[in-house]
Amino acid sequence: MARLSAVILAVAFQLAGVAQRPQGQEFQEAGVCARCHVISVVEWGMSAHRKAGTGCTSCHGASVGHVSDERNNVKPERMPHGGAVARLCADCHKDACPKSGRKAACSDCHHVHALVDPNKQASSADPRLEELDTRWQRFSRLMEEGGKLLALEQWEQARAAFRASLEQKSGDPQASEKLKLCERRLKPDLLGFEITGKQFEDKTGLARKVRVVGLSIPMVLVAGGSFEMGSERYAGSKPVHTVRVGAFYLGEHEITQAEWKMLMGSNPSAHQGTRFPDADQMPVEQVSWQDAQAFVRKLNERVQGGGFRLPAEAEWEFAARAGSPAPGISGRDQLAPRLATAGGPDQLGLYNMLGNVWEWCSSMQRPYPFDFSDGRESASTAGLRILKGGGFADPGDLLDPAFRHAERQDRRMRWNGLRIARDVPAVIP
Amino acid sequence: MNTGGLTRRGLLVASAAALLKAEPGPAPPLEYQRGGMLYRRLGRTGMDVSLLSFGSHTDPVDRMRTAPPRKNVLSEQGQARRDRIIARAFDMGVNLLDVYEEEGQWEPAARMVKGRRDKVLISLATENPYLDPEQAFKLFGHVDLYRIQTSQYDSRTLETWDTLRKAKEAGKIRAIGLATHDERIMTTALEDLEGLDFIFFPYNFIHARGDYSRFLPLAIQNGVGLIAMKPLASGSIMELDPRARPGAKPEFERLQLFSRHVRPILPSAVAELAKSLDRMPDETLCMAALRFAYGQRFLSSAITGIFEERLLEDNYRALTRYSERRPEERTALDAARKVANLLGPNWLPAHYRWLEERWRV
After folding, report:
1. Span A193-423: which CATH code?
2. Out of B159, B171, B194, whose CB is closest to A413?
C-alpha cells in the first residue's frame, strides 16, 4: 500500500508541479474525467484495465449529469462499494480469480483502479521517485538559502537563489512569489505612483503607501489573501464563504470634493457652499456609479500606467475587515458627512471605511457566493451596483463591512460617494 | 356603430387582459381558506394576507390632540374599544394590522401582537420625518410591510425609499411598498423604485379607474402585490345605504340620504337603490361593496377602517361566497353608483373628494 501511494503521489506531484509538461497518455484517454480525478486517472493509467481499453465509463457509467455539474451535486451513475465491487468485476470476469480461485472480495487483493496488490512490498526502488526526491531536496535547500538572504535584505543574491530553485521545480508558486518580491525590492518604483514612506509589504515587496503622480491622491496597499466574506446577520449577506483577493491599492480616503473638481471640473455634492467652509476636504457625494466610472476613466487617461478602477465588492470588504476600522459616523451623529480624513486611520491606514458616505464598488448585485469570474464585474452589464460602508444618515447597525446595499447605476444620492482602487501597476523599467 | 354588445368598460378590460396574455405574467394570487377567513399571496413577497385587513384610522370620536410628532392619541375608553375590536379581528383570522403612530398606535399595537408575532403582519407607513422607524423595529421586532406614503414624487421620495431598502436588506422589514392617491406616481414608482413589493391604492366599485390604468397590468406583470384602500370610500358607501342600520333609532330610519337636504332631488334613484337592497335582506350595501372588492382576483387584500364591531362583522360576513355575485347585488351596486353620480362629489367628506376627481370611472 505504501509503495503504491508513494508512486501515485510522486507521479501526481510531477504532473502538478510541472505544469508546462504535456500530460500523460492516460489523461488524454480518460478525457473529461481527468479534469478533476487526477489521482484516480494516475492509478488507472498503470492498470491492465487501461491496456484492455476498459475506461472510466465502463465501471462508472456515462454519468452525463455528473460531468456537466460543476458544483458536484450530481454523483456518477455507478459508485460501487464493498460487495458491489466484486459484482461489477463479475460483469466481465465471469470465471473465478485464476490465482485465488475466489469470486468475491476482489478488492482485497486488487486496488480498484490500479489493480495491483496493495499489500505487496516494493521489490526495488523506483528511479522516478529517486530523481524527484533529489530535486526536491535541492529545491528545499535553495528556498531556505533564499529565505535567509531575504531576511538580510540581500535582494540580488536572494533573487539568484529563487531563480535556481525554480529550475528545480518550475512554476512553484512560493518560489515565484519570492522571486517577484526580490525583483520589486530591487526596482520598487511603480508607474503612476510616487512612493511615500519607507514601508514595504513583507510578502509582495510592494510599497505600503503611495501617492498618485500629479494628483497627490494617497493610496494604501492591500496585500490580498483569503477571508470569510458575508455575514449571517443580514439576509442579503448570506452565506458566509471564503474568497481570495489579490494585492491591490485602495484610496486612503474617499475621493474629496477638491479631488473630484480637479479632475472633472465640476462638483455635484449636495454639501457645499457657505454652510460647509471645509467642503473641499469633505467626500464628494451625489455621484452615480456611472459618474464614478467617468472619474476613473479620466484618471486612467491622465495617469501613466492606468489600472484605476472602483474596488470589487470582495476587495472592499477584505480591506475593511483587514483594517478593523472603528465604527464611523452615522445619521444618529450628524446630518452631513465629515472631512474625508476625520476620525483617524484604521490599521491599514484607511480613513472612514465605515460611515461618512457609501462607497460605490465595481460589482453588480448578485447573490453570494462572490465570484470574480461570473460576470458580476462586467462594467457594461445593466443592473444594480453594490455600495458598501454605510453613510452618515444610516443607523449604526448598518455600518458593518459585511452589509451590502445596491443602487441603480445612474442614481445619485447625497450619501453616495466613492473610493478608488488600482491594480498593482508595472514597475518603472 | 355595432360593437357587438361590448361596453367601453368591457373593451378596456379585454384590452388589459390581452396585454397580460401577450406577455405571460404570474397567475392571480394564490388563495386559500382557513376557518372563515380567506388568504391571498401578496405579490412575490411570500407572505399570505387575509382578504380583510384592519386599517390604521382610529375613530375620530375617541381622539384627543397631542404633541408632535404624534397628532392624536385615543382616550382610555377609545383605546380599550379599539383593542377589543382588533382582538376580535384576530380571532376571525385577520392577519394584517395597519398602524399609524400619528394616532399613537405603535405601542398599543405592539402590545396586541405580543405572543402572536408569527401570525400577524404589521404594516406601517412613513408618516412624518420626525418618527423614528428604529423605534418601530424595537417595538415590533421587525415590520412586515413598510410603505412610503406620498402625494409627491421627488428626490425626497427616492431618499426615503433608499432608507427603506436598506432596512429591508438589514432584515428589519420584510416587504416595502407605496401608498398613494395618485395614479401617475404609482406608474412612475413601478418603473423607478427598485424592489417595490406592494402598492396600496384606492379601489371600490365606484372608484375603479384602476381597472383602466396602465399601472394595473404593469404591477401584475412585475409581481407587485396590490392592496385596495378605501374599499368603502372612507366609509361613505355605508352612508349611501338608505336602510336603517340594525339597532338604529326610528328617527334615523332611511338614514342619511332621506334625512339630508339632498332628499328632494333623489327620490327615484334612492327608491331604486332601496328597492334593490330590499331584494337582498341579508346583505347591506357595505357588504356588497366589499364583496365587489374581494371578487377582484388581482387584489391581495382590502383594507378598511373599522371603528365598530358591527362593521367588522359586516366586513367578515361579506367574505362568504364573495365570488358568486348575485344579480340583485349587481343591480344594487349600479343603483348606488347612480345615486353617487347624482350627488356629485358632495356625497364624500371634503377631504376625500379627490377620490371622485381621480378614481371615479
Report:
1. 3.90.1580.10
2. B159
